[in-house]
């Protein structure tokens, strides 16, 4: 057993920590509240090679593993970096695996295209998935040049953003969500990538990776939200003492600290399982995502309430964390929806429909 | 990173499962369950004969030199199988403590007899007036020539009715400096003046109240210096808190899963109900997180890295998530879920019913979750002391 990062992983974390401290102050996040995306920061990410980290070396990528990608996602989540790092990494890996010659792969490698995914699972309650309605709410869809999706005919990539991409939507997390029309009859025909089981397997894999990396991102969000709350609890004085000395403040924060550690370990275990325990990989990704989503919301909530009225004001940063803690995982249906996937993938894999259709 | 416990632990898992299959029958399990005392001398001595009681102690001390991952696996498998293992657990703690803080006399006279399965210890910290505030203990030890006399009462002395000794915290100086005037003794339960009375619990676990009137104890039974017992108890308590109940959570999850995937009288599967799937998913995640936190505590101690508040995190999360799950299932499965094992129509072999009664104590003994959260807040978040 070894629960520590190796030297190169630690260097990667430190490098991104340094970059983001400089290039992604909270003032940038606030400036992007109306767009959900920073072109300037994304170009810094590209300069660091973030767009090619997940691509295999055969297509000019850096061939990094999911743990390394997760560590970068986690640092990004800490500072709420408004860039499509996770989406580009996952879509790039999917395309490189199934259609390495597709022109989009080269464009991702060159830093010329933002590619996102229409996550396949239709939400049981609101029905917002590509499977049911022919259109999908796409993370970073408002700035995406292409979207990978799946329907009854198979896995495809849709471009023609001019016709298919809706306007950026205002959402609770100030993201860059947009509807993408994925009807085959509209606009330029989507490019078929795979059909049948191959298509379903590839999409199931990509959704698992998106959930895992988003889980890491949410762990980063939760870790920073916890620090913000604990710092405030040490400094804010009421009744003549720091409020962190009141157990009604201290205990919920402690409970979050425990859950956040668990979420980090779970995400790391899932990333490790890709190579070492492949049978558990998708189930662990689902767990890591659901738990990170639950934990991020709880932690941001506890931290917000630690601030009293100030937590509710726009001026304090914790509200930025609170809103994203629910909005970011919501794209995949949210935590409660995911719990059912956990049960299917981990406890009854023979009953879990491929591709989550 | 590597999340495996390693080949030696896998080997222990195989060995102990084989041993259980040969030596621990379904009838043994039922008997232990009904008795609730947490210790069975026959079974325990068979385990000791195989060297398992001292498996985690250093070889120089006559132990098995097994690493922390092997010991974790040993406890995990016994606990999951329903083996009455509290005696084993206590003796492991006390053996370690005596090796680290005892005298040569303790190491020669007690340690080998613990290893061979001859004697067992109960833990005597709590009292009627002293629970979370362990250091407020009032059971008095007073000088009687070179030796001592003990007067007072202990509470919750689990296995006190089967053990030959109690690892007992006493007061040897006045209460004005609570942590300073404490001393630990190994008190024989057959000494004159010791009266052990049963305390029954709703979880089926049996504990004891121990009355002490003028009990003579030799000075050689003292562990650590006079008035310095607090550090001895802190050491032993630290060993206890890093564990949690992930093994029991895993068994509970397996029971719930088996029930959810078994066809019911009407031909349906509980698993097809989204509420059941949602609760299974939550229980599976809690179990995995509890397991990871426990593995982390074990890894930290195997690597001799500081534990900080991470032992407290392990126990606090495991205790409270298991309780939360047990209660959630109880509300989901209705009255059939509250029928006991063996009753007509009992759901999941009574697993939900039993967990409902058993889980509250996991957030209480060995340090309540409230105390553990205070510890985590202080050590991990540097918040002001709140106790
Ligand atoms: C089945 C069982 C077996 C046990 N076995 C043993 C054993 O073998 N040996 C042994 O020595 N003990 C044993 N115990 C005792 C156990 O360790 C104590 O019950 C526990 O430490 C709590 O003490 P208490 O019951 O006196 O509760 P109290 O300390 O009176 O606490 C009551 C409530 O107040 C809270 N509280 C107390 N102080 C604070 C504070 N500063 N801040 C916030 N909240 C606080 C507690 O968390 C709890 O909710 C056992 C208990 C049980 C139920």
What is the fold's blueprint, element by element?
The complex is a heterodimer of chains A (357) and B (387).
Chain A: H1 7-23, H2 26-31, H3 39-47, H4 66-78, H5 85-98, H6 103-109, E1 115-117, H7 130-133, E2 135-138, E3 146-151, E4 154-158, H8 161-164, E5 178-181, E6 191-194, H9 196-235, E7 237-238, E8 241-242, H10 247-276, H11 278-306, H12 318-330, H13 334-347
Parallel strand pairs in A: 1-3
Antiparallel strand pairs in A: 2-5, 3-4, 4-6, 7-8
Chain B: H1 7-23, H2 26-35, H3 41-49, H4 68-80, H5 86-101, H6 104-109, H7 111-115, E1 121-124, E2 140-144, E3 147-155, E4 165-171, E5 182-188, E6 194-200, E7 206-217, E8 222-223, H8 229-241, H9 246-260, H10 274-302, H11 310-333, H12 351-358, H13 369-381
Helix pairs in contact in B: 1-4, 4-9, 5-8, 9-10, 10-11, 11-12, 11-13
Flavin-adenine dinucleotide (FAD) binds at residues 123-126, 131-132, 156-158, 201, 205, 207, 361, 364-366, 368, 370-371, 374, 387 of chain B.
Concise synopsis of the structure shown:
Helix content of chain A is 56%, strand content 8%. With 357 residues, chain A is α+β, with helices and mostly antiparallel strands. Chain A has 3 domains: 1-104, Orthogonal Bundle (Butyryl-Coa Dehydrogenase, subunit A, domain 1), CATH 1.10.540.10; 114-194, Beta Barrel (Butyryl-CoA Dehydrogenase, subunit A, domain 2); 198-353, Butyryl-CoA Dehydrogenase, subunit A, domain 3.
Describe the structure.
The complex is a heterodimer of chains A (357) and B (387). With 357 residues, chain A is of the alpha+beta class. Chain A folds into 3 domains: 1-104, Butyryl-Coa Dehydrogenase, subunit A, domain 1 (Orthogonal Bundle), CATH 1.10.540.10; 114-194, Beta Barrel (Butyryl-CoA Dehydrogenase, subunit A, domain 2); 198-353, Up-down Bundle (Butyryl-CoA Dehydrogenase, subunit A, domain 3). In chain A, 56% of the residues lie in helices and 8% in strands. A 4-stranded mixed sheet of chain A has the order 1-3-4-6. In chain A, strands 2-5 form a two-stranded antiparallel sheet. Chain A has a two-stranded antiparallel ribbon with strand order 7-8. The model of chain A has no long low-confidence stretch (mean pLDDT 94). Chain B has helices at 7-23, 26-35, 41-49, 68-80, 86-101, 104-109, 111-115, 229-241, 246-260, 274-302, 310-333, 351-358, 369-381, and strands at residues 121-124, 140-144, 147-155, 165-171, 182-188, 194-200, 206-217, 222-223. In chain B, helix 5 (86-101) crosses helix 8 (229-241). Chain B has a 4-stranded mixed sheet. In chain B, strands 2-3-7-6 form a 4-stranded antiparallel sheet, with no helix packed on it. Chain B has 387 residues and is of the alpha+beta class. The longest helix of chain B has 29 residues, at 274-302. The interface between A and B is large, with 53 and 47 residues.
């Amino acid at each position: 057993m070894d629960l520590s990062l190796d030297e190169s992983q630690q260097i990667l974390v430190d490098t991104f920590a340094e970059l983001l401290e400089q290039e992604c102050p909270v003032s940038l996040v606030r400036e992007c509240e109306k767009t959900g995306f920073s072109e300037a920061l994304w170009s810094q990410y590209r300069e660091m090679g973030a767009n090619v980290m997940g691509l295999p070396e055969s297509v000019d990528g850096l061939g990094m593993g999911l743990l390394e990608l997760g560590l970068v996602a986690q640092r990004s989540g800490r500072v709420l970096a408004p860039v499509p790092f996770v989406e580009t990494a996952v879509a790039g890996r999917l395309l490189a695996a199934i259609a390495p010659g597709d022109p989009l792969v080269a464009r991702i490698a060159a830093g010329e295209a933002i590619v996102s995914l229409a996550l396949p699972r239709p939400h049981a309650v609101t029905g917002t998935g590509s499977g049911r309605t022919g259109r999908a709410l796409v993370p970073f869809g408002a700035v995406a040049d292409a979207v990978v999706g799946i329907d009854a005919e198979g896995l495809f990539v849709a471009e023609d953003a001019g016709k298919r991409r809706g306007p950026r939507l205002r959402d609770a997390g100030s993201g860059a969500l947009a509807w993408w029309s994925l009807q085959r009859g509209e606009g330029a025909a989507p490019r078929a990538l795979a059909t049948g089981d191959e298509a379903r397997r590839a999409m199931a894999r990509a959704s698992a990776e998106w959930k895992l990396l988003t889980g890491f991102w949410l762990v980063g969000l939760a870790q920073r939200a916890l620090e913000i709350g604990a710092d405030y609890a040490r400094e804010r004085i009421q009744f003549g003492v720091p409020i962190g000395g009141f157990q009604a403040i201290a205990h919920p924060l402690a409970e979050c600290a425990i859950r956040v550690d668990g979420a980090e370990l779970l995400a790391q275990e899932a990333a490790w399982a890709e190579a070492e325990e492949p049978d558990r990989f998708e189930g662990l990704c689902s767990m890591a995502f659901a738990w990170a989503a639950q934990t991020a919301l709880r932690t941001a909530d506890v931290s917000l309430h630690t601030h009293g009225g100030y937590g509710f004001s726009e001026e304090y940063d914790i509200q930025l964390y609170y809103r994203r803690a629910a909005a970011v995982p919501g794209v995949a249906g949210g935590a409660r929806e995911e719990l059912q996937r956990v049960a299917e993938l981990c406890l009854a894999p023979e009953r879990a429909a491929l591709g989550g259709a | 990173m590597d999340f495996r416990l390693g080949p030696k632990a896998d080997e222990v898992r195989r060995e102990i499962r084989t041993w259980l299959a040969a030596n621990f029958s379904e009838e043994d399990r039922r008997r232990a369950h009904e008795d609730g005392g947490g210790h069975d001398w026959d079974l325990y001595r068979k385990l000791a004969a195989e060297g398992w009681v001292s498996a985690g102690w250093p070889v120089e001390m006559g132990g098995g030199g097994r690493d922390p991952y092997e010991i974790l696996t040993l406890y995990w498998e016994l606990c999951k199988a329903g083996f009455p293992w509290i005696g084993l657990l206590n003796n492991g703690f006390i053996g370690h403590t005596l090796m680290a803080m005892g005298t040569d006399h303790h190491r020669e006279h007690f340690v080998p007899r613990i290893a061979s399965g001859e004697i067992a210890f109960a833990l005597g910290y709590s009292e009627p007036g002293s629970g979370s505030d362990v250091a407020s203990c009032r059971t008095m030890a007073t000088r009687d020539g070179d030796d001592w006399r003990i007067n007072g009462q202990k509470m919750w002395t689990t296995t006190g009715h089967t053990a030959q000794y109690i690892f007992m915290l006493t007061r040897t100086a006045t209460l004005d400096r609570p942590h300073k005037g404490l001393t630990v003794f190994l008190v024989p339960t057959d000494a004159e003046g010791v009266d052990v009375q049963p305390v029954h619990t709703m979880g089926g676990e049996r504990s004891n109240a121990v009355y002490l009137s003028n009990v003579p104890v030799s000075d050689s039974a003292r562990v650590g210096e006079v008035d310095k017992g607090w550090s001895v108890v802190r050491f032993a308590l630290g060993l206890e808190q890093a564990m949690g109940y992930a093994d029991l959570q895993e068994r509970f999850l397996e029971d719930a899963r088996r029930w959810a995937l078994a066809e019911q009288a009407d031909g349906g599967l509980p698993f097809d109900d989204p509420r059941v799937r949602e609760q299974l998913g939550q229980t599976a995640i809690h179990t995995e997180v509890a397991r990871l936190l426990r593995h982390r505590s074990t890894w930290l101690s195997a690597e001799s890295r500081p534990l900080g508040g991470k032992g407290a995190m392990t126990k606090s999360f495991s205790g409270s998530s298991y309780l939360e799950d047990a209660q959630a299932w109880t509300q989901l499965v209705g009255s059939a879920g509250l029928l006991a094992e063996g009753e007509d129509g009992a759901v999941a072999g009574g697993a939900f019913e039993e967990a409902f009664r058993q889980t509250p104590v996991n957030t209480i003994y060995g340090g309540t979750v409230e105390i553990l959260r205070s510890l985590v807040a202080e050590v991990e978040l540097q918040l002001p002391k709140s106790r």
